[in-house]
Amino acid sequence: MLKRLFANVLDEIIIFAISVLLLLAAEGIMKVIGFKIVDAAAFLLIIYAVINVLYFPLLEGGKYATTLGKRLLKLDD
Predict the structure, then answer these.
(1) Using H for helix, E for strand and C for coil, what is the string for the chain?
(2) How does pLDDT run across 18-62, given as a tens digit for each residue?
(3) How far is CA 38 from CA 17, 31, 61, in A?
(4) Considering just the CA atoms, what is the radius of gyration of the chain in Å?
(5) Does residue 47 form part of some domain?
Protein backbone atom coordinates (compact mmCIF):
# COMPACT_ATOMS: atom_id res chain seq x y z
CA MET A 1 0.00 0.00 0.00
CA LEU A 2 2.80 2.42 0.90
CA LYS A 3 4.64 1.47 -2.29
CA ARG A 4 1.56 2.36 -4.36
CA LEU A 5 1.32 5.74 -2.59
CA PHE A 6 4.99 6.41 -3.34
CA ALA A 7 4.39 5.48 -7.00
CA ASN A 8 1.56 8.03 -7.13
CA VAL A 9 3.81 10.69 -5.59
CA LEU A 10 6.45 9.88 -8.23
CA ASP A 11 3.84 10.25 -10.96
CA GLU A 12 2.84 13.68 -9.63
CA ILE A 13 6.50 14.77 -9.50
CA ILE A 14 6.93 13.62 -13.11
CA ILE A 15 3.78 15.50 -14.15
CA PHE A 16 4.98 18.66 -12.38
CA ALA A 17 8.42 18.42 -14.03
CA ILE A 18 6.84 18.05 -17.47
CA SER A 19 4.58 21.02 -16.71
CA VAL A 20 7.53 23.21 -15.73
CA LEU A 21 9.43 22.23 -18.87
CA LEU A 22 6.42 23.07 -21.04
CA LEU A 23 6.04 26.41 -19.24
CA LEU A 24 9.68 27.26 -19.87
CA ALA A 25 9.34 26.27 -23.53
CA ALA A 26 6.18 28.37 -23.90
CA GLU A 27 7.87 31.36 -22.24
CA GLY A 28 10.83 31.02 -24.60
CA ILE A 29 8.61 30.84 -27.67
CA MET A 30 6.52 33.79 -26.48
CA LYS A 31 9.64 35.86 -25.83
CA VAL A 32 10.98 35.15 -29.34
CA ILE A 33 7.78 36.37 -30.98
CA GLY A 34 7.61 39.43 -28.72
CA PHE A 35 5.02 38.41 -26.13
CA LYS A 36 5.17 37.69 -22.42
CA ILE A 37 3.27 35.34 -20.12
CA VAL A 38 1.84 37.69 -17.50
CA ASP A 39 0.82 35.13 -14.86
CA ALA A 40 3.24 32.21 -15.03
CA ALA A 41 1.73 30.53 -11.95
CA ALA A 42 -1.74 30.42 -13.51
CA PHE A 43 -0.31 29.18 -16.80
CA LEU A 44 1.61 26.46 -14.93
CA LEU A 45 -1.56 25.42 -13.10
CA ILE A 46 -3.44 25.09 -16.38
CA ILE A 47 -0.66 23.03 -17.97
CA TYR A 48 -0.42 20.85 -14.84
CA ALA A 49 -4.17 20.22 -14.81
CA VAL A 50 -4.29 19.27 -18.50
CA ILE A 51 -1.32 16.91 -18.20
CA ASN A 52 -2.72 15.41 -15.00
CA VAL A 53 -6.03 14.66 -16.73
CA LEU A 54 -4.30 13.05 -19.73
CA TYR A 55 -1.36 11.31 -18.02
CA PHE A 56 -3.10 8.40 -16.31
CA PRO A 57 -5.54 7.35 -19.07
CA LEU A 58 -2.86 7.59 -21.77
CA LEU A 59 -0.23 5.63 -19.87
CA GLU A 60 -2.52 3.04 -18.31
CA GLY A 61 -4.22 2.49 -21.65
CA GLY A 62 -0.96 2.31 -23.57
CA LYS A 63 1.54 -0.40 -24.41
CA TYR A 64 2.76 -1.01 -20.86
CA ALA A 65 -0.63 -0.42 -19.17
CA THR A 66 1.03 1.28 -16.20
CA THR A 67 2.28 4.71 -15.17
CA LEU A 68 5.94 5.65 -14.95
CA GLY A 69 5.82 5.68 -11.14
CA LYS A 70 4.40 2.15 -11.01
CA ARG A 71 6.90 0.98 -13.60
CA LEU A 72 9.84 2.47 -11.67
CA LEU A 73 8.70 0.74 -8.47
CA LYS A 74 7.88 -2.47 -10.36
CA LEU A 75 4.21 -2.58 -9.34
CA ASP A 76 2.06 -4.91 -11.43
CA ASP A 77 -1.66 -4.26 -11.72
Answers:
(1) CHHHHHHHHHHHHHHHHHHHHHHHHHHHHHHHCCCCCCCHHHHHHHHHHHHHHHHHHHHHCCCCCCCHHHHHCCCCC
(2) 999 999 999 999 999 999 988 999 999 999 999 999 999 988 887
(3) 21, 12, 36
(4) 15
(5) yes
Structural domain includes residue 77: no
40-70 CB burial, b ≥16 within 10 A, e <16: eeebbeebbeebeeebeeebeeeeeebbbbb
Full-model pTM: 0.84
**Domain assignment of residue 10, given as a range:** 2-72
Number of domains in the chain: 1
- Give domain status of residue 62, yes or no: yes
